[in-house]
Amino acid sequence: MTTHAPQAAHTVTLPGSLDEAVAALAAMPAAVPVAGGTDLMAAVNSGLLRPAALVGLGRISEIRGWRYLDGHALLGAGLTHARMGRPDFAALIPALAAAARAAGPPQIRNAGTLGGNIVSNAPTGDALPVLAALEATLVIAGPEGARREIPVSHLLAGVEMLRPGELVGFVRVPLLHAPQAFLKATGRTGPGRAAASVAIVLDPARRGVRCAVGAVAPMPLRPLEAERWVASLIDWDGDRGHLDPQVTTAFGEYVAAACIPDPPPPEDGSEPVPLPPAAIHLRRTVAALARRALGRALA
Fold first, then answer.
1. Helix, strand or coil, per DSSP, at residue 235
2. pLDDT digits (tens, 9 = 90+) for 16-74
3. Same domain flag for 158 and 107
4. Which residues form the FAD-binding PCMH-type domain (predicted)?
5. For residue 257, which of 286, 298, 217, 215 has the smallest C-alpha distance?
6. In this structure, what CATH number is given to the domain that contains residue 33?
7. How far apart are CA 275 and CA 164, in angstroms?
8. CA distance 57 to 78
């Protein structure tokens, strides 16, 4: 979504399949795909974007549901937050359902889509830390029926990008059948953009803990050392919930320090510069979210 054409959109195409949408984008390189439009229309209304053409994805039924595939859930990029927030989906991927329910007011949840959250790649996107913690992969649709897969973290970090004429068609998520949690803090009461968010996913088969922190950096952050440390202290063969509260507190602080580190010491050997008050507050917020999310997952 980087087309900055000077004129407003005057061509709207409504394909009925994913391959038709890819063909439309290939035929109109300046076109912009649109699903829910919650981010796109905000950019248009603010004058930041004037697309020459639009390719609407709302009629593509194949990307508006999900199915099981080899121990994974194949989620359509057109799934709305409202649909992901329902109980049947929550039984499948609890943390992603929790993130969808926290995505904003009803009008945003009814229109906004999983694929739009990914492609817009806003640091405050609620689904992004969950997908990072789940180590999800994206199924990219390209011209002439081509399909390729990339880790979601690669797209979010800019390691791999969508090529001209490509669309995110599906998100492949491993079904771990294990506890998960998502928590976020906003700057106000009620739905709002995240000031910080944390996703925790337990992986008993690998005896691992996956954690991702959102909204504090341009992309979700994985505190890998903190993950390994706390995983080594969990009784995977017994009562996972029996973990000393001091451990969960230390885990929260470990995660927060990894994601919001102290400034590097000055090269001239002078006194280190302390964190500004806003960063200290954010670090405390992340520590509290990580501690609570781990506690919920273990419970």
1. coil
2. 999 999 999 999 988 889 998 887 777 777 877 788 889 999 999 999 999 998 889 99
3. yes
4. 4-178
5. 286
6. 3.30.43
7. 42
8. 8
| Sheet order of strands, 72-76 included | 66-69, 72-76, 167-174, 137-141, 147-151
Q: How far apart are CA 59 and CA 81, in angstroms?
A: 17
- Counting the structural domains of the chain, the total is 3
Phi and psi of 79, rounded to 5°? Answer: -60, 130
DSSP tally for the chain: helices H, then strands E: 12, 11
Structural domain contains residue 4: no
pLDDT tens by residue, 240-283: 878 899 999 999 999 999 999 998 888 777 887 889 999 999 99
Q: Both tokens of residue 50?
A: 């004037």
Residue 2 lies in a domain: no
Distance CA 294, CA 241 (A): 10
Rounded to the nearest 10°, the torsion over CA 103, 108, 114, 119 is -100
257 and 277: one domain?
Answer: yes
Q: For residues 264 and 15, what is the distance between their CA atoms, to the nearest angstrom?
A: 52
> Is 292 contained in some domain?
yes
Segments forming the whole domain that contains residue 228: 180-298
3-class secondary-structure state, position 194: strand
What does DSSP say about strands 137-141 and 167-174: parallel, antiparallel, or unpaired? antiparallel
Q: What does the block give as tokens for 91?
A: 């039984």
Q: For residue 53, what are the β-bridge partners?
A: 11, 31
